[in-house]
Amino acid sequence: MNGQARPTLLDRYGSFLPLTGATPRLSLGEGFTPLVHAERLGAAWSLSNLWLKLEGCNPTGSFKDRGMVVAVARAVEAGARSIVCASTGNTSASAAAYGAMAGLEVLVVLPRGKIAAGKLLQAQAAGATVLAVDGNFDAALRVVRELAAQEAHPVTLVNSVNPHRIAGQTTAAFEVCDDLGRAPDVLAIPVGNAGNISAYWAGFRAYRGAGRIDSLPRLWGFQAQGAAPIVLGHPVEQPETVATAIRIGNPASWATAVAARDESGGLIEAVSDEQILAAYRDAARLAGVFCEPASAASLAGVRALRAAGRLDPDALVVCVLTGHGLKDPDTAAGLAAPAVEAEATVPSVMAALGWQERR
Ligand code: F0G
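^ thats the input. predicted complex w/ F0G below
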């Protein structure tokens, strides 16, 4: 079984993926992520059937691994020696890891100063060449598209404009349906470059086409208020949000995201940084799930729409938590209570806790 002890994502869903007999069956153990019923969090928000898809449990800590394994495998099959991507951080961490595994040169172009600390370290640790540019993600994506089109140094683009990325990411929709035994009523998801919402919709449709599910979910996408081009209906020149992963002003998959919204009877709306951070805290404290800020946009949106009476309390809702909280320690530290100092003795610890000694 391809050197792997257990079936891999490519084994499990190969019949739905663009693989050939010559595609190397790579794996770092991507996919098979938990779908957790968040009972306390749901109760706090008056939702009885709230589920969290923990994509932070992927090997590099985000959903990007699902698409990257397919994109890198196909690049290797095609004889590529070098891959490139622009990124707000997670795509670069994933490209660096899968590229390292496959022995490829990895180039990542990142907006300088706007990448969460953990993500940057992941790319550097894996030996990727990191190019920090003065410009946002949209500018970086323009650069790598042109870089991949030139011929002096052949390099394969592994952003989600590469269709193998989107194909791999459809597997998350398959897993949700396989775990629930049906499609959810609502699937809520953060939207940045808009590839993932497009991939989920393609996945649900493929699964219904194959007779694996009877119904399709409504897709609810959420952008950060300061980076909400799809909601506004025009590109945003200077996107800004605490959720740096989705700090994107001109999404590449804009049209397919709008199609996913409209064909599913769903919506794409904006949530504020305050709403995002409140949901981020609630996920950690009421569900035990430490996600990154961008991921909490899905939760923040569901919470707001429930509060506005636009969501049935018993609806089966899946929120996609796209990346792990440890990637962005600075945001977490900004919200953390300081440690309580004490000597390494029981009386000192009890005193620090304000506990009385029993007489
Ligand atoms: N959540 C996280 C944690 C992300 O890293 C991203 C995108 C998204 C949501 C949005 O997904 O772009 O498919 O709409 N991150 C990309 C990156 C842009 O470079 O890592 P999307």
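Strands lie at 35-37, 50-54, 82-86, 105-111, 129-133, 156-157, 186-190, 218-224, 267-271, 317-321.
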